[in-house]
Design a protein that fits this description.
The protein is α+β, with helices and mostly antiparallel strands and 372 residues long. Helices cover 16% and strands 43% of the residues. It has six helices and 25 strands. It has helices spanning 7-18, 71-80, 133-141, 203-213, 266-276, 327-334, and strands at residues 2-6, 32-38, 41-47, 51-57, 60-63, 65-70, 86-92, 95-102, 105-110, 129-132, 158-166, 169-177, 181-188, 199-202, 219-224, 228-233, 236-241, 260-265, 286-292, 295-302, 306-313, 321-326, 341-346, 353-356, 363-367. An eight-stranded antiparallel beta sheet has the order 6-2-3-4-17-16-15-10. Strands 14-11-12-13-25-24-23-18 form an eight-stranded antiparallel beta sheet. α1 (7-18) runs antiparallel to α2 (71-80) and α5 (266-276) packs antiparallel against α6 (327-334). It is elongated, with a radius of gyration of 25 Å. 37% of the residues are buried.
């Protein structure tokens, strides 16, 4: 195998694939990236056995061939080469190493046979569904913060992507929850999505897909099966296993009858919560909200660090009450609201609170209160 490629093209493709590779691997081949050179250019593949990313990039191919080399080491070498460099990659059977040359820099890396590299099958996937890239970015960004990191309830360790039909309208919906909060975002379902199965996309896959979308074109091709999901963004394709489990019936925890409605300036509210949370106990990060007509009072008491109180004007004319929330969860939700106002809908201090973005009716957030 012998080829020449621009540094910028190589670093972009390597950046897409090397992040999948785990830093510590008991299986040596999984630490490597598969380099495949043919008349169409250079294809790079990486996998952790649960997910596979393949990215193709133009290159001048002198001799076609395949070999695998250490992914992170190769990425670091190329990253440190000067901008505009022409990189030559060469492997021959005479020298059991991958030769990398750019200007006066030369490197030789150990290799493993391409035939040992595991390839993920894409059998059983649905027909392609074309999704607008910005719409998919919105679904992910509005919800992924609520994906659970606890391994005990593994079925919450991902983003539930599914189609729902309300009235005569089909919607593609993303939902994430960790049991303490829930985030939901939806968009009109693209053509062909109606029959696709709902899948729980693992947290790591969601992160990698989001990285790919920054370099995608106007649309992304999506394919789904009960066992796998595939995203094609530009010349990159990510195939991943999905979480084998049933996502809970999240509709039961979304409040429908919360009739105490409070409107607040989102930026001012987020800044106030952030300030008072400075002295909160690290474990609970509890903030008490005393809601009264026309104002809320935020209070944090910490036996060791003292007390913080902040008052805000709000649009609320109901009866007063007190409710507590985790400050981090409040900041996560307010960070997703694009409009100037945030809308809180309360029932009582012990029931879930619904948070809405008046500027984006396709999102909903649910927060479980803390005892205060």
């Amino acid at each position: 195998m012998k080829l020449t490629i621009e540094r910028q093209a190589l670093i972009k493709a390597l950046g897409h694939v090397q992040s999948v590779v785990e830093r510590r691997n008991t299986i040596p081949i999984l630490s490597n990236v598969l380099l495949s050179a043919d008349k169409d250019g250079l294809a790079l593949s990486a996998t952790d056995l649960d997910m596979e990313i393949v990215d193709e990039t133009p290159a001048r191919i002198d001799t076609a061939g395949q070999i695998t080399a250490p992914a992170h080491t190769l990425y670091e070498i190329v990253r440190k080469l000067p901008d505009g460099a022409e990189v030559e990659l060469r492997f021959t059977s005479e020298d059991p190493r991958l030769s990398i040359q750019a200007g006066r820099s030369r490197f030789n890396l150990p290799v493993l046979p391409a035939g040992d590299f595991p390839v993920m099958s894409s059998e059983g996937l649905s027909s392609r569904i074309s999704v607008d890239t910005n719409d998919l970015i919105r679904l992910i960004d509005k919800t992924r913060f609520a994906i659970s990191t606890e391994e005990t309830r593994y079925y919450l360790n991902g983003l539930y992507l599914h189609v729902v039909v309300e009235g005569d309208q089909a919607k593609l919906r993303a939902v994430a929850t960790d049991g303490h909060r829930l985030a939901l975002a939806e968009m009109p379902a693209p053509d062909g999505a109606a029959g696709a199965p709902g899948v729980i996309v693992p947290r790591k896959t969601v992160q990698e897909v989001r990285r790919l979308l920054d370099d995608a074109g106007e649309s992304v091709e999506l394919q789904v099966s009960p066992q796998k999901v595939r995203f094609e963004a530009g010349r990159a394709a990510l195939t991943s296993k999905v979480i084998d489990g049933s996502f809970p019936d999240y509709g039961r925890v979304i409040p429908r009858d919360n009739n105490r409605v409070l409107m607040v300036d989102n930026a001012l509210f987020a800044a106030a919560v952030d300030r008072v949370a400075t002295i909160s106990a690290e474990k609970s990060r509890s903030v008490k909200m005393a809601v009264e007509p026309g104002k809320i009072v935020l209070t944090v008491r910490n036996m060791e660090a003292g007390q913080a109180v902040e008052e805000l004007e709000v649009d609320y004319d109901g009866e007063g009450f007190e409710i507590g929330f985790n400050a981090r969860y409040l900041l996560d939700v307010t960070g997703q609201i694009q409009g100037e106002q945030a809308e809180f809908r309360f029932a009582d201090p012990a029931s879930p609170t619904l948070v809405l973005d008046p500027s984006d009716p396709g999102v909903q957030y649910v927060l479980m209160p803390l005892r205060v």
